[in-house]
């Protein structure tokens, strides 16, 4: 079956119906955005992988239990799960290890190693490298909104709900974040020219 031609909703139904390959396609489709959004918040590669894995374990459990009902909103839904797991992590003691899915399950085994060529990976890493370093310099509230909007495709209403602020506050934070990023990029270009 040609899974990559199917919609998210079709893939979800196929997976619930027992087609494991549909899940692999869903993860492949969004792994870069979701992993990046987690990594930008936690700033640690291994922790980001743990949270990414925990996110998809939660996704799998919810789908298998028949509790998914977000028609056509798969990426924002997964992003909310990931974001909540990041918040949970920061609420706990820094040293507390994340609860993983156990030795019998590894989301990266499900994915396999065929997803991205070395060239693609290098280009993607280079593209994000400078942007990541600038995003890290933003105030936490601005950084959070920017990541949820641009890496997780969440609406401002969804961002407002998750962060427990008004939509106007979320929009304001986004405006400040983009202005600050623009200023930092201009300063970086000036310093490179000098």
Would you give an account of this structure?
The chain is mainly alpha-helical and 194 residues long. It has helices at 8-16, 20-42, 45-64, 74-91, 107-111, 118-135, 140-150, 156-163, 167-193. Helix 1 (8-16) packs across helix 2 (20-42). The protein is globular, with a radius of gyration of 18 Å. The termini are far apart. Residues 93-114 have low confidence and may be disordered.
Which SSEs are present, and which pair or pack?
Layout: H1 8-16, H2 20-42, H3 45-64, H4 74-91, H5 107-111, H6 118-135, H7 140-150, H8 156-163, H9 167-193
**Oligomeric state as shown:** single chain
- CATH homologous superfamily heading of the largest domain: RNA polymerase sigma factor, region 2, helix turn helix motif
Based on the structure given, which CATH architecture of the largest domain is correct?
Orthogonal Bundle
- Using the CA coordinates, give the radius of gyration: 18 Å
Please give the domain count.
2
Biggest beta sheet summary: none
User: Proportion of β residues?
Assistant: under 5%
Number of strands: 0
Summed up, the helix count is 9
- Give the low-confidence spans: 93-114
